[in-house]
Structures are given as structure tokens and as C-alpha cells.
Write a structure and sequence with these properties.
The complex is a heterodimer of chains A (265) and B (549). Chain A is α+β, with helices and mostly antiparallel strands. Chain A contains 7 helices and 10 strands. In chain A, the strands form 2 sheets. In chain A, strands 1, 2, 3, 4, 5, 6 and 7 form a 7-stranded mixed β-sheet that branches. In chain A, strands 9-10 form a two-stranded antiparallel ribbon. In chain A, a hairpin with a 2-residue loop joins β3 and β4. Chain B is 39% helix and 13% strand. Chain B contains 19 helices and 10 strands. In chain B, the strands form 2 sheets. In chain B, strands 1, 2, 3, 5, 6, 7 and 8 form a 7-stranded mixed β-sheet that branches. Chain B has a two-stranded antiparallel ribbon with strand order 9-10. In chain B, β7 and β8 form a beta hairpin. In chain B, α12 crosses α14. The longest helix of chain B is centred in the N-terminal third of the chain and has 24 residues. The relative contact order of chain B is 0.10. The chains are: A alpha+beta (265), B alpha+beta (549). Chains A and B meet through β2, α2, β3, β6 and β7 of A and β1, β2, β3, β4 and β7 of B. β6 of chain A pairs antiparallel with β2 of chain B, so a sheet runs across the interface.
Chain lengths: 265, 549
């Protein structure tokens, strides 16, 4: 297995020529619905006095289009699609495949099977460009018309309602959320002053994790009343007024030990 | 009745058969073949288009090997990685706060999608071409592209194209930045010698680099920028832009290689490593080495040559016996590809510390006559250095003066391709060293003298103008004067007076003066030093010898 990034050049060595064909959207949608081995139709190549005529005929069962129009569509996809052949021009167009990681299926097309992530292989070079056009037919015109109608509908539209909407907001004595909040607060009660040493321990362990703290966050962590906490903080920490870490508390330098993650007291 | 209907039916069926045959056969002058088209369903492979411009003349069939990977250089911009998480420097809840702030202001940062990143395609290894493939948007919006391949059973298989990438080749030569380009544009009516532009730029950078860099940086081999550039803020599209290799731009032999000033990347086996190394070399200024010397001319060729060897000395900063310190220091860009090849060969050889006369001669052919001497001299220096296990690589001092020299030279002799050529032996780097110093004083020398004179590296100032007569290809000049003999006494005198590096010593005993060949000088000097057994001292990271008596 080659390492990641290595491009498999077998395709170019064999000089495999491929065709690049531009196919209309509806046709590719129909092709996606193919069953079984994936047969979608027949390609007929006619060599008429030197000029090649290529035409594609869609399989019968794939001509039913659904999804367009409100009712069961009476529109069917056209079957005949002549190809307009073009030269590649000066451009060199190569085809490379990327095997997405995690997949290790053997490919029916016979090229390199990728067992590793992102295997890149050069399949070949484009020798012919073509455009698949539908033969102008009644079917096709109807189809196109439906498509245009669909697209021309605006994304947003105004619609008049018969009845006024009354289901959103009702006046309430007190919101459920507020009730819960007050209950929670009651349960928690006022924060009690714990032992100074305990609070210090909590603070130090907190400052081990982060250097800067907001007073609110510290209150949250330690569950101490603000005034008491501030007293303790004045002892061991400093309050940053300016700078990047505005209005935050941090430990005094002598208490800091960030490299070793130790605290000194 | 039944019989008749039967017959009629048969007739109809017969007609049908005939009709069918006719339709399938078609007219006599055309042939029709039918193929079944399949769209395989279970494929996990995504097909993509790799588009090259016609002007780049890319042919996939001549590729021997290729590597392709995504270019993740944009990840930093989008990823917005935080620097410190936890512990020092971080705030509690900073991430959440940042996110809340961004939401409040409606700042939407685009995701970094690996799928949309450009590809970097490297063909034929480090020396080959590089391409960058940018995704072309909107190809799947209105129509789908399919790749039709013919499979073994004659049927066509159609695969949808997942994405389209436009691949453009990446320049390996050094280009001007936007500011510089604007400057040059302003001077376009006055500047005649366009080949000089890159050379001048290189000179400028060198000056800046030497003034601005500290010694300490020299050790870093992994410097991203060349030393000269390290001092300034330059805008580059990507780090790859910093890579350099020379192209045969403006190709004639007569040009100084300065426009491809920085050594070609593709020359040596090391790409970035070398370049970084090169940068580091620049910083290590060897100005002190040339204190006693007066040089009046610097040759362009030498500088270009020097660049190359330096390139090949990838990360051998340590005490490498191959004292190619000087040789390897300089990197070279030769204008032509054949020259490149030769240079590449030379580099490798020089790395081994050998400079065969053949190569020296080859170089000489390309060099102007005057330079041959310097190449010999530098040769000696390099070899002596190796013999003495000198480790330090002196900064390239690359062809600073090249620009000026080249200027004058090309101006005066446009028709002589053999002169002014970029291929210089790394020995010329010595000349380039002098060049540097001289360059400082004489940025633009309009006289022709320069190259030849400077290369001679004579201690006494040469003020005479006029080119020296072309010397024979062998380059060996007859000693003009024997002021200095390579004796133990002489060496002892020098070492007592002041500490010197081997390079310095070699400069004192130049072939022209002592009448010895470069190899002889090296050998004799080595023997003398062994006898004297001087003390060693490290000054400015260079090994100096000195005696105390």
C-alpha cells in the first residue's frame, strides 16, 4: 500500500482516454434512480462519413419523473439525447480519484482498490468533451416548463390567515421558570462562610487550572459570600484593572507556580 | 382463413425483422455501434478533474512519480487555535465568553472544510514541478459532469465528477514582492539591465541581514526565511513561496545569476532545509575575517557559484571535516540548466571536500578569466579547511557585488557569453566574500576591472583599471611575485600576531604569490599546522588558531 499522498499513476501510463460529458440535472437525477447494475440506457455511436454522431437513449423505466409538479406528474423525461462533441482544446484534463477514508470496497471499474485513507489515483486523461442535450420534444418542453415554474416561485411569500394566532403568549401570574428559580434560591440559602483554610484550598486548586478568574466565577466555585471571598482574595491575589485580562483576579506572584503546577503557600 | 392470417402474420414478422436489421445496419457508408451505459452505484471513489492550463505544457504520461496532498496552510486562519489552555495565561470560561461575544456581534467564522482546501501536487520528486490545485466552485450547480470510461465488456461506465480543480505550476525561482515590483515598475524606463534587478535585491537583503541578525540565530538550521529576509517583514502567499530554486530565466550565459539569486531549490536534495540553512548562514557574518584585506572588485560569478554549494550542505552545521564551509556556504543559481546540472554535480563533489581539477576547469570555462584565480584560491581554502577539520561555514557573502559587477560587465560586453556567467565554483564564494565588503563601498562600479581584480584577492589594493588579459582555461596563473613563501616561520608569525582561521591563513598564501598549486598549498599548510600545533579558540563560532610565544 503506498503511503498517503502517493499518487497512483497507472491510469496515465496506460493512457486511458475518457470522455467528459456534461449532463443535465434532471438526467443525472434519473440516473441516480437506476436499479440493479446501474444500467441507465444505451449509447449509440454512428460514424457517418467521417463525422461521428453520438446519441444516448434513456431506458424506458427511468423516464418517469416524480417530485416535480403538484400532482402525479404526467411529465416524462425525454429519451433521446444527442451528444454534442467538443475538443478538449489546449487544456490538459486529467481525472483523479480519491478513495474516501474508511472505505475499502473493491471497485468494479477495475482501478486501484484503496484500503487506506484517501488513496489518490490518476485514472486517465480526458480525450473528448461532450454535452448531452435532450432532443427537442414535447416531453422535454413540458418538463422544462414545470421546472421554471418551480424555480420562479419566491422562497418567501405572504399568506393571509383566517383566524388570528392566539396560541403563543398568554398572560401568566408568574412564569414557570421564575418559580423554579426562586425555589432553587431558597433551597440553596445564603452562602455560609466556610473555614478560611478550606476556602483557600478551593481557591488554590481553582487557580491551578486557570490563571485568571472573574469574581463571579469564583463565587460560583467556592459558594462563599462575595464580601468574605473578596477579603480572602485580597490576601492572596491581585485584581487586574487594566490589560488583557480586565477585571480578573489572579494569584500573587509569590503564590504562583505555574510551570510545575505546584502551589506555594 | 386461419392460414391466411398466419401467413400475414409471418409476413409482418418478417418485415419487422428486415426493418430491424435495416435500422441497425444503417446506411452503407456509416456504421453504428451500440453500447450499454452504466452508472455504477456502489462506488466509494470520488472522481475529480485535474485541469491544467494549455500554456504550461503538462503531459501526464511523462510523470514518473507524483505526490499529492491537501494544502492545510489555511487551517490557522480558520481554526483560530488558542494558545494556552488551562494553567497560566488562561481565564476561566474564556472560550464560552468568546463564543457568546461572537454570537452577539454576529461574527460568523467560516468552517475550515478539508474538502475545499487546495491540493499540492509534486511531480517527480523534489526536483520536479510543483502544482497547486484550487477548487473551482459551482460546477455541480446547474449541470453534472460525468466521466465516461469504457469498461472491459465494451460497456460505458459513467461516474459523476465530484469536484474540479485547476492546477497551476508554482514558480520555483524567486520573484519580487509587490512593493519591489512597484518600485521597479517606476524605474522601468531607466533600467536597461533587467537581469540586475534580482541581484540588487539580493545585495540589499544581505546587507540588511548582516546588520540585523545576531550570531545566535546562526545555529538554527530550520529558519524559515533566508537570513536577509529575516530582518524584514515580507508578505508571501504561502510558505512555499519562500522556497527558491532557479529557473533558467533570462537565460543567457552572460547574465549574472543574481536574479535567481537565492540558490535553486531543486538543485540539491534538500529543499527547505537548505534554504533555511542558508538563511542561517547569512547571519553569521564573517566580516572580521577580511579585516586586513583590501579588495577592489567582486565578481558576480563567484557569488552565484557559492550559493549552490551552500545549498547542498543541508544540515551539516557541525564540525564536518569537509571544510567546505566556504564552499557549501554559498548557494548558486546558474542561469542555465546545464549549468545547473554541473553545479549540482559540483556541489556534491564539493561536499566531499574534493574539487577535482576537472570541475575547476569546467567552471573556469564558464567563468570569466579573472575568476579562475579566485576559484583556485577558494579551492585551497576549502580543502585546507577540510584538512584541518574546520567546521565553521562562513556566510556566503554571496555575490553581493555581483550585481554591480555584472552590471558593468554586461553593459560593457554584451556579446561575450563566456564571461559573466553565473556558474562559479564555490571557491568563488571567497570572492564573493570580498565582494561583500567591497560591495559596501562600491555599489555600482562602472569600470570593468572589478571582477578580475577582485577575484585575485590580492592583499594590496588594486587600483588599476582595465580587465586583465584573459587567462588560460587552466586558470593557473604564473606567480607574479613571490612576496610570500609558505613557510613555517611565516605561519608562526601570523598566528602569534593574531588568531586566524584556516581561511585567513590561506588568504595569506595565495597561489599567485607562492607559486604553489592549490593542492600543494593546502598540503603544506596542513603539515605546518600539524608541526606547530597551535592552540584553538572559538571566536564568533569559528575556530581560530593562535600561538603564544
Amino acid at each position: 500500500m503506498a503511503d498517503k499522498g502517493e499518487v497512483d499513476l497507472t491510469g496515465t501510463k496506460q493512457n486511458t482516454g475518457v470522455w467528459l460529458v456534461k449532463v443535465p440535472k434532471y438526467l443525472s437525477q434519473q440516473w441516480a434512480k437506476a436499479t440493479g447494475r446501474g444500467e441507465v440506457g444505451k449509447l449509440r455511436i454512428c460514424k457517418n462519413q467521417g463525422k461521428a454522431e453520438v446519441s444516448f437513449t434513456l431506458n424506458e423505466e427511468l423516464t418517469t419523473i416524480d417530485g416535480i409538479g403538484d400532482k402525479s406528474s404526467k411529465v416524462r423525461a425525454p429519451r433521446e439525447h444527442p451528444f454534442t462533441l467538443q475538443t478538449v482544446g489546449g487544456q490538459t484534463l486529467a481525472v483523479f480519484t480519491e478513495n474516501s477514508s474508511g472505505q475499502s470496497d473493491a471497485e468494479a471499474s477495475g482501478s486501484v482498490t484503496g484500503t487506506g485513507p484517501d488513496k489518490i489515483a490518476l485514472e486517465g486523461v480526458v480525450v473528448q468533451r461532450a454535452e448531452c442535450r435532450p432532443a427537442a420534444s414535447e416531453n422535454y418542453m413540458k418538463l422544462k416548463r414545470l421546472q421554471i415554474e418551480e424555480l420562479s416561485k419566491p422562497l418567501r411569500f405572504s399568506q393571509q390567515l383566517e383566524k388570528a394566532v392566539t396560541t403563543n403568549y398568554k398572560p401568566v401570574a408568574n412564569h414557570a421558570y421564575n418559580l423554579d428559580y426562586e425555589k432553587r434560591k431558597k433551597e440553596e440559602g445564603k452562602r455560609a462562610r466556610a473555614d478560611k483554610q478550606q476556602v483557600l484550598d478551593m481557591l488554590f486548586s481553582a487557580f491551578e487550572k486557570h490563571q485568571f478568574y472573574n469574581i463571579k466565577d469564583l463565587v460560583d466555585i467556592t459558594k462563599q459570600p462575595v464580601v468574605y471571598l473578596k477579603e480572602i482574595l485580597h490576601d492572596i491575589g491581585i485584581y487586574n484593572i487594566k490589560g488583557t485580562h480586565k477585571n480578573t483576579w489572579e494569584l500573587k506572584p509569590e503564590y504562583r507556580h505555574y510551570q510545575n503546577e505546584e502551589k506555594s503557600d | 382463413m386461419q392460414l391466411s392470417t398466419q401467413i400475414v402474420e409471418e409476413q409482418y414478422s418478417l418485415l419487422e425483422v428486415i426493418y430491424a436489421e435495416m435500422t441497425s445496419l444503417g446506411s452503407s457508408s456509416s456504421s453504428t455501434t451500440e453500447y450499454i451505459v452504466r452508472v455504477p452505484k456502489n462506488t466509494s471513489k470520488k472522481y475529480n478533474i485535474m485541469a491544467f492550463n494549455s500554456g504550461d505544457k503538462v503531459s501526464c504520461s511523462i510523470w514518473t512519480q507524483a505526490r499529492m496532498e491537501r494544502d492545510m496552510s489555511n487551517r490557522r486562519i480558520y481554526g483560530e487555535e488558542e494558545t494556552t489552555e488551562g494553567a497560566a495565561g488562561s481565564e476561566f470560561g474564556k472560550k464560552q465568553r468568546e463564543e457568546a461575544r461572537r454570537k452577539k456581534y454576529g461574527i460568523v467564522t467560516k468552517e475550515f472544510k478539508v474538502e475545499d482546501q487546495p491540493w499540492i501536487l509534486k511531480v517527480n520528486g523534489k526536483a520536479g514541478r510543483r502544482f497547486k490545485g484550487l477548487k473551482k466552485g459551482g460546477i455541480t450547480e446547474n449541470a453534472s459532469y460525468y466521466i465516461f470510461t469504457q469498461s472491459a465488456d465494451g460497456a460505458f461506465e459513467a461516474f459523476p465528477v465530484h469536484a474540479w480543480y485547476n492546477f497551476t505550476p508554482q514558480a520555483k525561482h524567486r520573484t519580487l514582492t509587490a512593493e519591489e515590483a512597484e518600485e521597479e515598475w517606476g524605474r522601468r524606463n531607466k533600467v536597461v539591465n533587467h537581469f540586475n534587478i534580482m541581484l540588487q535585491r539580493h545585495l540589499r537583503e544581505q546587507e540588511r541581514g548582516e546588520e540585523g541578525e545576531e550570531e545566535g540565530e546562526k545555529g538554527g538550521k530550520k529558519k524559515k526565511k533566508k537570513g536577509g529576509r529575516g530582518g524584514d517583514l515580507r508578505i508571501h502567499d504561502s510558505e512555499e513561496d519562500l522556497e527558491m530554486s532557479s529557473d533558467d530565466s533570462e537565460g543567457s550565459m552572460g547574465e549574472d545569476g543574481e536574479d535567481k539569486s537565492k540558490a535553486k531549490k531543486d538543485k540539491g536534495p534538500k529543499g527547505k532545509g537548505k534554504k533555511k540553512k542558508k538563511g542561517s548562514d547569512f547571519e553569521d557574518s564573517d566580516d572580521g575575517d577580511f579585516e586586513g584585506l583590501e579588495v577592489d572588485y567582486m565578481s558576480d560569478e563567484s557569488s552565484s557559484e557559492e550559493e549552490e554549494p551552500e545549498k547542498t550542505k543541508p544540515n551539516k552545521g557541525e564540525d564536518v571535516p569537509k571544510g567546505i564551509d566556504e564552499m557549501s556556504d554559498s548557494e548558486e543559481e546558474s542561469e542555465e540548466e546545464n549549468k545547473n546540472e554541473e553545479d549540482a554535480k559540483e556541489e556534491e563533489e564539493e561536499e566531499d571536500g574534493k574539487k577535482t581539477p576537472v570541475q575547476v576547469e569546467k567552471k573556469k570555462k564558464k567563468d570569466s578569466s579573472g575568476e579562475s584565480d579566485s576559484s583556485e584560491d577558494s579551492d585551497i581554502e576549502g580543502e585546507a579547511a577540510s584538512a584541518l577539520f574546520m567546521k565553521k561555514r562562513t556566510p556566503p557573502k554571496r555575490g553581493g557585488g555581483r550585481g554591480s559587477a555584472g552590471n558593468s560587465r554586461t553593459g560593457s560586453r554584451p556579446g561575450t557569453p563566456s564571461i559573466d556567467n553565473a556558474a562559479t565554483s564555490n571557491t568563488l564564494r571567497a570572492a564573493a566574500n570580498k565582494l561583500e565588503q567591497g560591495k559596501r563601498q562600491t555599489v555600482v562600479s562602472s569600470s570593468e576591472t572589478p571582477a578580475a581584480k577582485r577575484l585575485k584577492m590580492e592583499p594590496s589594493p588594486q587600483s588599476s583599471s582595465g580587465k586583465s588579459t584573459p587567462q588560460p582555461a587552466s586558470g593557473k596563473s604564473t606567480p607574479s611575485s613571490s612576496d610570500v613563501q609558505l613557510t613555517e616561520d611565516a605561519v608562526r608569525r601570523y598566528l602569534i600576531r593574531k588568531p586566524m582561521t584556516t581561511k585567513d591563513l590561506l588568504k595569506k598564501f595565495q597561489t599567485k604569490r607562492t607559486g604553489l598549486s592549490s593542492e600543494q598549498t593546502v598540503n603544506v599548510l596542513a603539515q605546518i599546522l600539524k608541526r606547530l600545533n597551535p592552540e584553538r579558540k572559538n571566536i564568533n563560532d569559528k575556530m581560530h588558531f593562535y600561538l603564544t610565544e
